[in-house]
Write a structure and sequence with these properties.
Strand order of the largest sheet of chain A: 1-2-3
Distance between the termini of chain A: 74 Å
Largest interface: A-B, 125 and 125 residues
Radius of gyration of chain A: 30 Å
Number of domains of chain A: 3
Low-confidence stretches of chain A: none
Shape of chain A: globular
CATH superfamily of the largest domain in chain A: SLC41 divalent cation transporters, integral membrane domain
Oligomer: homodimer
Structural class of chain A: mainly alpha
Mean pLDDT of chain A: 90
Order of helices and strands of chain A: HHHHHHHHHHHEHEEHEHEEHHHHHHHH
Helix content of chain A: 55-70%
CATH architecture of the largest domain in chain A: Orthogonal Bundle
Chain lengths: 454, 454
């Protein structure tokens, strides 16, 4: 397979420049739509548009599904709604079409939905149905297309259905078995289907033990179920148990990856999904919010320290250890918040009570705080002549580590309880909070140790 | 399906306590092995052992595959090697058996490998072959079991092969087509197989365009390929193009999840994969290393500041802004390192040169640094009377943000170049480095601004 590297992209750009459409199409022939999508993502907007319009409608539709959302929208922005529907959306599977419609600008979206509503075709109705489900639920992840047979039919009916669906469905792993009311009764994995003769009745060999979810099951739960039971496809039923769609593992893999990336970005103080290849102002915008938060926190910290101006003049060594307090408060808080956020995401938090968790965190941070404090104290005693300062810092450090760790645990748990994404309480948020609390504690202890009146 | 909650676990513990084996087995009957694994993971070691020994060999083997590695090893530690092989490993698929053997203590592992070597069975040889591949390669991810037919055979042969393998293989999605030398020639998705009559020759309808990897392809690349092309299974060939195994998506999903968790932990200063339910000393151990790094960094920072004791005595307001410098250096560095680490993981770094990337990062951080500096300067001018300090801080802040961001970009790129995991350069490592550099810059600029001699 041809590797897509910089030389190759440059070569395609040159061909685009000199308008050699047929050479380009010949080059692209050997590529999977996902590869053409990757090439388009490496081009600038004008080149991307140029290449995209060269593609025949079927390929263009396949490529569109694979593109990054923002590039999808850029390529579609000057195309009329009717054309978007007929050329690109109609050949797609229902879930892909719904995903793209959901990202369209409101006015275009409305027009496309109108076209869909007026269409008599079942596929159009399927897409409209999917648009109603929230994105992060089983309904939002599922496709309507599936192979479904009545429990009283036989193997040849299954095969006929697969034959009919062959063009529109390229990932069939199982046939779903329903009763007269279309309620899900079971499943026939294809590997079993091939073993029976066409006349065999479904009722004689289908599997009735089946794992399914309903349309409002949360996407996290869907991912957990498919991961735990190693499923490649999961049927979705409505509240009456009627089969309405199926979720394939590729969409769940995308969901898992996106969720992990989002948590990583939140922990790193980035507010949008950005790549190094994004435009400068996009990169800047994604990073500015948390920098501004840090700025506000820093100004607040200067106020906290400013209240102790007099003591710093007398004991400037108090200032030397400001970074150790803020750094350790930040590190300890991030560690405990990261562990709890990951456990919430993976559902491995355990069954103990809130206070039992706080107490455990207190113990862990007490142990680590003591180790750090004792090392720092020993360093102070043996390598400096600032004994009183060493004692002040050590005591403060212990207090700060315990406080920061416990807050790092408690805040995500409380956010989760009031239905806010606990991952918000990681990264710059937790470090900024802990900087302030840490400094207040440090100077308070300093006051007591040096016996300075407030 | 019965939910596994605390009450349910307690109920099982009571039954274990009162040795009601048959009641327990009856309860567990309705569960999937993955669910029984989850129950065992919620028990203490003694209870887990008690429950595990109750299971029949086949169930025990299925459950073992689903368990966390450390619990697997605990359950196996008192069982002789022969028994481990005969009871648990023999019924497993080759990749699961190899994974478990790889985690065994060296002496037990050696004994098991000896038993395998002496076995005449093909399955045993398969496992031995798999043990030779590094864990993070296609060879380490693949299973040997697959459905393989010669290109000159017909559909009925495919079906016969599926029938033979039915017991040992519960996830068949495709039949692989090879030539006389066992070189991979193509694939027949099961959904196509069902459409042809038993007498149809394979050569007349198999798909010859096929995506495969070789045994030494890196696991990251395997994940990328399966994700990009939405594959549920990927054939693996050796250097001669001979088909040797296949990778299923469930193993790749586990790999993706583990990698994301690892990067998240590194960014959060946690050195082991821990859950809130782990023992206190495990939690403490996972967090201590980066706290100690923070401690060393903090002591070094106190040295940097200590050199400016005289200036702090005269201008104590220099101390007020220490946290803003360290916080912003930390935040800016973490942001840029996180973006590059994520891009390296997702292979979305783009094709520009190292210096082009540095220049772009410089621009982004210059913009964000200017915005933050101007805001801080305005605050200093309008809300405080410390004009000179405000100017010093603002200039320092700009310099520190640019420096920290650029380092945050450069360090992971350099680590990648010398084949060290770039994710190491996130979290506490980057904040500690940037604290020190930031403080040095800040006090240097302060010196110049206040015109204090060194």
């Amino acid at each position: 397979m041809q590797e897509i590297n910089k030389e190759y992209i440059d070569h395609i750009c040159e061909l685009l420049e000199s308008k050699q459409a047929s050479s380009i199409l010949k080059l692209l022939e050997e590529f999977h739509p996902a590869d053409i999508a990757k090439i388009i993502e490496d081009l600038n907007t004008k080149e991307a548009n140029g290449l995209f319009t060269l593609l025949d409608d079927e390929t263009a539709s396949d490529v569109l599904v694979e593109l990054d959302e923002d590039i999808q929208q850029k390529l579609l922005q000057d195309i009329p709604a009717t054309e978007i529907y007929e050329k690109f959306l109609e050949p797609m599977e229902s879930d892909d079409a719904a995903d793209i419609i959901n990202e369209l600008p409101e006015d275009v979206k409305e027009k496309v939905v109108n076209i869909l509503s007026e269409s008599k075709e079942e596929e159009a109705q399927d897409v409209i149905e999917l648009l109603d489900y929230p994105e992060d639920t089983a309904g939002g992840l599922m496709a309507k297309e599936r192979i479904q047979v009545n429990i009283n039919e036989n193997v040849s009916k299954c095969i006929a259905r697969i034959q009919e669906a062959k063009e529109e469905l390229d990932d069939i792993y199982a046939v779903y078995v329903v009763d007269e009311e279309e309620k899900l009764k079971g499943i026939i994995p294809l590997q079993n289907l091939v073993l029976y003769s066409p006349k065999t009745k479904i009722i004689d060999f289908f599997e009735s033990e089946i794992i399914s979810v309903d349309t409002y099951t949360q996407a996290e739960e869907v991912a957990r179920i498919m991961k735990r039971y190693d499923l490649v496809v999961l049927p979705v039923v409505d509240s009456d148990g009627i089969l309405v769609g199926r979720i394939t593992i590729d969409d769940v893999v995308d969901f898992i990856t996106e969720e992990a990336e989002e948590d990583y970005q939140l922990a790193s103080g980035i507010s949008e999904d950005v790549d190094p290849t994004d435009k400068i102002w996009v990169l800047s915008r994604a990073r500015l919010p948390w920098l501004l938060l840090g700025l506000v926190g820093g100004v607040a910290a200067s106020k906290v320290i400013g209240q102790h101006e007099a003591s710093i003049k007398i004991y400037p060594e108090m200032a030397f250890f400001i970074p150790i307090i803020t750094a350790m408060a930040g590190n300890a808080g991030i560690q405990s918040s990261a562990i709890v956020v990951q456990a919430l995401a993976g559902n491995t938090l355990g069954e103990s009570s809130f206070f039992a968790k706080i107490f455990k965190e207190f113990t862990v941070s007490f142990i680590n705080g003591m180790i750090c404090s004792v090392i720092l104290l020993a360093y102070g005693i043996f390598f400096t002549d600032m004994l009183q300062t060493a004692l002040t810092i050590s005591i403060s450090l212990l207090a700060v580590i315990i406080l920061a760790s416990t807050l790092g645990l408690a805040i995500p748990l409380l956010l989760q309880r009031i239905k806010i994404d606990p991952a918000l309480a990681t990264g710059p948020f937790i470090t900024t909070t802990n900087d302030l609390i840490g400094l207040a504690v440090y100077f308070y202890i300093g006051h007591m140790m040096y016996n300075i009146p407030f």
